[in-house]
Design goal:
Number of helices: 13
Largest sheet: 4 strands, mixed
Distance between the termini: 28 Å
Number of strands: 27
Structural class: alpha/beta
CATH superfamily of the largest domain: Enolpyruvate transferase domain
Number of domains: 2
Helix content: 25-40%
Oligomer: single chain
Bound molecules: shikimate-3-phosphate
Length: about 425
């Protein structure tokens, strides 16, 4: 029987067509969690089909919150419990999802019971001290495995507000502390070293909470109650990135992506792609529950190089694997700096990108906090490893389109963590 987790990608000469991208993963997680603690029934269309978001739904179900899929494709309904959830009878399995574990912990810290959270092998290696420190300061008691790794045991209860200055720029940490802030006495402030995605703040406001934002500080007063909402989840720009980079590989390619998230804290990707030579236009801009949405049309042209550093690295953290995977085909290559965080994602993404590019015959300089990839290189197909990481699997499927000869992505099913139908869609648009 063929191994379904291996996918063969053959060289292409162009990409053409339209792709309807599934709902944004970051927003779907936050909607599901906030709907669980809101009053009333929330309905979401185009809710992400990602395995990660299923992990969030499974966890909230174990906390007493009922949800169901509706007939409308991708629509779900979540029956809110109000601020008090039910003590879980079982361990909350977060699967591969750091977002589930980190953000849900913020809510669990404010619940008057003990919960346990675990994850798969990859998540079990990821750092949790970044949420344990602020939540403990707020009054929760948290136990973890050695080195602040999962599994976590959270003894929740009454919390006090804090002013938190995280060392790393992380939207998951910010959302975690703001969610805990809902249950705390007083005003909780998170002041980030660099601006990160603000879906937590926007979703909290959509559910009726007041959240103030001044510069890089977000503040929330405790005791606010949330009200159910109806929303359409915008298409995930980080998933769209794979098709945009595929279009960038072939001058003359043309791709249309309707209904994509255009939130400015995520859309830096579009500026960088334009800088690198992709021709992009955005039409039909609309707002859905505070999030900006639009249709992206992109045309491939000469592909130049660039440097990603500082605040750009934080803003592009999920798209760097695919930008790096296609960088050898650009004129000037790519340098990535200040990206130590990439080493603690689903896998060490700096090492994974370097290993796969080298297997394809590319020269790559790997650095502790980044990499340098020369442009103008010719790559060949190879047997590559996803390292169990969805973004690595998809990034190298895109890079394989311009390589000489075919490429096998071993462990390609990892893509389902954020984008279960990715390979089908990629096949549809490649010529
Ligand atoms: C996410 C934030 C980022 C990102 C992750 C999703 C979020 O992680 O890499 O895929 O939804 O807040 P960090 O907050 O750890 O940087």
């Amino acid at each position: 029987m063929p191994d379904v987790s291996n996918v063969v990608v053959r060289p292409a000469c162009a990409v053409r067509g339209a792709v309807r991208i599934p709902g944004d993963k970051s927003i779907s997680h936050r909607y599901a969690m906030l709907a669980a603690i809101a009053e009333g029934t929330s309905r979401f269309q185009n809710f992400s089909a990602a395995r990660d978001c299923q992990s969030t739904l499974d966890c909230v179900a174990k906390l007493g919150c009922e949800w169901k899929r509706l007939e409308d494709d991708g629509a779900i309904e979540v029956r809110g419990m109000g601020p008090r959830l039910t003590a879980p009878a079982e361990v909350l399995d977060c699967g591969n999802s750091g977002s589930t574990m980190r953000m849900l912990s913020g809510i669990l810290a404010g619940q008057p019971f003990t919960s346990e959270l675990c994850g798969d092998e990859s998540l079990s290696r990821r750092p949790m001290a970044r949420i344990m420190t602020p939540l403990s300061e707020m009054g929760a008691k948290i136990e973890a495995a050695e080195g602040g790794r999962p599994p976590l045991r959270i003894h929740g209860g009454s919390l006090k507000a804090i002013r938190h200055r995280p060392e790393v720029a992380s939207a998951q940490v910010k959302s975690c502390v703001l969610f805990a802030g809902l249950f705390a006495a007083g005003e909780t402030v998170v002041e980030e070293p660099m601006r990160t995605r603000d879906h937590g703040e926007i979703a909290l406001r959509a559910f009726g909470a007041e959240v103030e934002r001044i510069g890089n500080a977000s503040r929330i007063a405790g005791g606010q109650r949330l009200r159910a909402i109806e929303a359409h989840v915008p298409g995930d720009l980080s998933s769209a990135a794979f098709f945009l980079c595929a279009a960038a590989l072939f001058p003359g390619s043309q791709i249309a992506l309707p209904g994509i998230l255009m939130n400015p804290t995520r859309a830096r990707l579009l500026d960088i792609l334009v800088q690198m030579g992709l021709k992009i236009s955005v039409a039909h801009l609309e707002e859905h529950q505070g999030e900006l949405v639009g249709t992206i049309e992109a045309r491939g042209a000469a592909w130049k190089g660039t440097v990603i550093a500082g605040a750009d690295t934080a803003a592009l953290i999920d798209e760097i694997p695919v930008l790096a995977a296609v960088a050898p085909y650009s004129e000037g290559g790519l340098e990535v700096r200040d990206a130590k965080e990439l080493r603690v994602k689903e896998t060490d993404r700096i090492a994974a990108v370097a290993a796969n590019l080298r297997k394809m015959g590319a020269e790559v300089e790997e650095r502790p906090d980044g990499m340098r990839i020369l442009g103008g290189q010719h790559l060949h197909g190879a047997e590559l490893d996803s390292f169990g990481d969805h973004r690595i699997a998809m990034a190298f499927a895109v890079a394989a389109l311009r390589a000489e000869g075919e490429t096998t992505i071993v462990g390609a099913d990892a893509a389902g963590v954020s984008y279960p139908t990715f390979f089908e869609e990629l096949r549809k648009i490649t010529e």
